Amino acid sequence: xxxxxxxxxxxxxxxxxxxxxxxxxxxxxxxxxxxxxxxxxxxxxxxxxxxxxxxxxxxxxxxxxxxxxxxxxxxxxxxxxxxxxxxxxxxxxxxxxxxxxxxxxxxxxxxxxxxxxxxxxxxxxxxxxxxxxxxxxxxxxxxxxxxxxxxxxxxxxxxxxxxxxxxxxxxxxxxxxxxxxxxxxxxxxxxxxxxxxxxxxxxxxxxxxxxxxxxxxxxxxxxxxxxxxxxxxxxxxxxxxxxxxxxxxxxxxxxxxxxxxxxxxxxxxxxxxxxxxxxxxxxxxxxxxxxxxxxxxxxxxxxxxxxxxxxxxxxxxxxxxxxxxxxxxxxxxxxxxxxxxxxxxxxxxxxxxxxxxxxxxxxxxxxxxxxxxxxxxxxxxxxxxxxxxxxxxx
Length: 394
Prior knowledge:
Helix content: 10-25%
Number of helices: 7
Oligomer: single chain
Number of strands: 29
Shape: globular
Largest sheet: 19 strands, mixed
Distance between the termini: 47 Å
CATH architecture of the largest domain: Sandwich
């Protein structure tokens, strides 16, 4: 779907809070013209849609009165079951279920935090073969540098792309290795020398050659990333991810030919999760090897084993890439680990918290107080923000 220059100008004015009534109507009609599926939508259009959705959501929460805001809540799960409050209805925002309403009204007012924390953004450091570091978020568009015969450029959309040599003569140059690293509070998109697109979540690093030679394309990942691998049947693409959870310190290998998948392997998570969206991947860890089909997820365990989830929640796995926090019966500490990485904050737990789970969706570009307020409206957990620390209490 193409975005005309007049519509793009209206969207920019709308996001800046300067749109006329006519422009607001134009943006609103455009936003609601989408169906629920993201499949086939260009990345730049999807990014615009998510930004407009975030703005709509902010306006909604600013205009609904306190009593109505108190009614919105996540589901609350106890133990293994999921318990919903009586008389619930779904609140929809352009087809996106945000929260559930509860029949009982509490007297909790919306918080007015003295401190707040802004969300993360597009930022990363590129480390070249000689150790030179380039701050990609502040780098100018155009050619950044060369690594042998490979040119590294920053494109108009802000992402970085490698342009590998096309001739055999140029391809004889020594191979150099680069590393792109996102900090806590950062994310970035890069196109590798073979055309493979990679989205990096916060606190993630990816090491790769400046050109792929030989019989395989191999990269090293820590953290979380989404891959859209360029097809090349004669040269498989392999993602190596060290797994420090196992006694043998195994490395997880994800081998593909051309496919789309997400890997979440943060060291503070209990498992490495590989979620397949399209194509086929082979998961290898130690002596174990399994094939994944679309919609499935592989999970490691501390003994080096592999567990296959055959009907995985792919929307939850890709929510971060699509600009959302999305939870489906997710425990509180897992949510707080995501918050810590995206907002670059330290989480401090106080008191005995109940073993509960939460479900719901919130735009990732909100300030942290908005997400915490939605969690706190369940009246089962409370938060205090002090600088870059968030205190979590029953």
